[in-house]
Design brief:
It is a single chain. The chain is mainly alpha-helical and about 160 residues long. The protein folds into two domains: about 15-100, no CATH class; about 115-155. Helices cover about 45% and strands about 10% of the residues. The protein has helices at about 30-35, 40-50, 70-75, 85, 90-100, 115-135, 135-155, and strands at about 15-20, 20-30, 55-60. A three-stranded mixed β-sheet has the order 2-1-3. Strand 1 (about 15-20) and strand 2 (about 20-30) form a beta hairpin. Helix 6 runs antiparallel to helix 7. The chain starts with 12 loop residues before the first strand and ends in a 7-residue tail after the last helix. About 15% of the residues are buried.
Length: about 160
Amino acid sequence: MLCESCKKNPATVHSVVIKNGQKREQYLCAECARQVGFKFDSFPALLGMLFGKENDIISAHKCSCGTDMVQFYESGLLGCPNCYNEHREELLGIIKRAQGGRTEHTGRIPSKREPKEPDIIARLKAELAQAVNNEEYERAAELRDQIKSLSERKTGPDALNQ
């Protein structure tokens, strides 16, 4: 796509301006974008490297604190908690690209973690209650022994005899 201003260079800046609920898009080359006041510092360049675009979305819409997306691209910081609501659409686009299309944080907990002993004991106690309720006494005895074994390991053999 060519720059809408000079119609010579490829458009590398996608400008989205939302004013009074009206959305206006403009596609400019870097040179024409600089002429109308867009700044390209190291942070926007980093965003461009990460997301494969020089500047994807730059909105002139300002939050009540005065922060706009140009300031966010320059500093990497939002001005207040309300900025997350005011710039929601632009931020979701950035988050989607960074998270491979997902917008919900999944965290860093490994998907396959070993359950801890208190979790295992609680699960075994629930199974024991179910086995007794179903009159499965052999299964209940096995579960009771497993619980006793884990409890002894956890607190020592003398802890159960008190």
